[in-house]
């Protein structure tokens, strides 16, 4: 999947949340939602890495589940899918390869955060007009 698809996923979710013509208050809400995700997700992925490398599978499963929900809420479906894979593996008693999983997550997270940064700027500009 390419960058445009990530943008399409996220924009579709934003439209689900606030409609096609969001009010100023809704655009503000979307911008806060985006900034919260962008601010919290890198630390969450770092913690996931720690759990992949030696935490217990229950903690790994629960943490991956939370990250999956956050990614789904923002419309980052591909990223949510990777978290779902980790959650599923941990639920079934295994731990995915940490290096491979973290590499996939880093690449996907970079794409998603790039799209979200652009969208947040777009929302900010629309609020300042």
Automatic annotation (TrEMBL):
Xref: Pfam families: Hpt
InterPro entries xrefs: HPT_dom_sf (IPR036641), Sig_transdc_His_kin_Hpt_dom (IPR008207)
HPt domain sequence ranges: 26-129
Regions that span the bilayer: none
BP GO annotations: phosphorelay signal transduction system
Residues with the Phosphohistidine modification: 65
Keywords: Phosphoprotein
The protein, known as: HPt domain-containing protein
Organism encoding this protein: Paractinoplanes rishiriensis
